[in-house]
């Protein structure tokens, strides 16, 4: 497998994550406290999973007992942290040799169950997981009559053209 599809998926993730944070920041005050909490929980979950798998790729312990933070971070802190982790994934993919995408990584899920995934599978998981939950956040915004950010690969390609 060549690095190109992974690099492009990470670029799309970075673009979509930043767009979602911008849309949430633009509309946050228009939401009820309950909706604000739900959006923060979704954003925190995406970010925490990204960080957990970042640590797996680096071979380092992550220190999370669950796929969410123990205390809810503020929106600005989440946005800053997500941008930094997305940038890390971009640099990571850019520096990975083609053969390394098929290299297995052993780790332990937060449930305590041992696991093994290739580096490529981890990258795909991070991208697909984020897409799913950005959809949750976008649906909540739409239910409240607010405009979410574009999130599709076709939107990314159109914006890049």
TrEMBL record:
Keyword Metal-binding: yes
Superkingdom: Bacteria
Keywords: Metal-binding
Pfam family, one: DinB
Alphabetical list of PANTHER family matching this protein: PROTEIN DINB, SLR1116 PROTEIN
Annotated family: Belongs to the DinB family.
Protein name: Damage-inducible protein DinB
